Amino acid sequence: MKLPWFVGILMLLISVQVEAQSRKHQYRKDRYFFGVTMGSGFTQPIIQERFSLMETTPQSANENFDKKYGNLFQHGGGIYGLHFSFAFTKLFSVVSQPCFQTQRYNYMNNYHWSDTITGGEVYKEFLHRQKINNIRIPILARMDFSARRWSPFIQAGLSADIAYFASKQIYTDNQVDRSVDRKTAVSSNVSEMTAHLNRFNVYAVGGAGISYYREQFAISLSGNIRYGLRTTIDPFERYSDYTGMASEYLDVQDKFNLLTMDIMLTLMVPIHKKW
Question: Topology of domain 2-108+132-165+200-270, per CATH?
């Protein structure tokens, strides 16, 4: 009689754990590790101040022109890069994972115009999609909780991020229902908005994960929270209409910092011991 699949998986996990517990400490002290890393990042703007090109009047006092941002997991982007680390002790190492990252954030707003002469009504709802491509250079201190093959860890540090390209696209329909279907909506051209950004930013980084070490290689799964210490939009370029979106869509960016949650898988190999 065949065993259920979950029983087989459970037995495999138990055997791996027994093997790990029976092994002596996995040697890491004074060793360099090099590798590759990839994963996904989810971004959320943390709003500091709202900006709009529209001014309220007594007739529109009840209108809300604030942008409605999507939630964290609606703003996904890829991460691809390298891994470098050096273990000073069995449990403490310094890690750098320079990589390319795509950050995305979306927001919605809408406008309603009434023609007091003809009595006509115009409704417009907009989905704004922004994408920022960064080069990321983090330096992290990592503390492991075990010197065995299975080794959970925590890490923290700073990351220098350089934005080298950013773009924006807007989707429009004529129904205000807090939803714009990109398949049927009218779309603007993709416009570059790099000039609107603070091109250099510093992120505070903290996270945790688990590594599995063998003599010839190691695999690591980690999650990090990153928070930009500078605002994303350059305040001196906020109202500059580089994209043409301000004149056509009455759009201007808010003041915000970006919060990102990264999930990354890393494959690394030990190179040699310290000279």
Answer: Porin (2.40.160)
Give the Cα separation of 43 and 75 in Å (integer): 5
d(CA 137, CA 81): 10
CA separation for the pair 70, 129 (Å, rounded): 10
CA distances in angstroms from 72 to 42, 106, 239, listed in the order given: 6, 10, 26
Contact 42, 261 (CB under 8 A): yes
Could you tell me the residue ranges of all domains in the chain?
A: 2-108+132-165+200-270
Beta strands in 25-98 (DSSP E): 31-49, 68-69, 76-87, 92-96
Q: In the structure, how many helices (H) and strands (E) does the chain have? A: 2, 12
**In whole angstroms, how large is the CA radius of gyration of the chain?**
25
Top pLDDT among 45 and 71 is at 45
- The pTM of this model reads 0.83
Quick: pLDDT tens for 92-138. Answer: 999 999 999 999 999 998 887 776 666 677 788 889 999 999 999 99
Is residue 178 within 8 Å of 68, Cβ to Cβ?
yes
Going by C-alpha positions, the residue among 223, 254, 229 that lies closest to residue 130 is 254
**What is the dihedral sign for C-alpha 39, 40, 45, 46?**
negative
Helix (H, G, I), strand (E, B) or coil at 100: strand
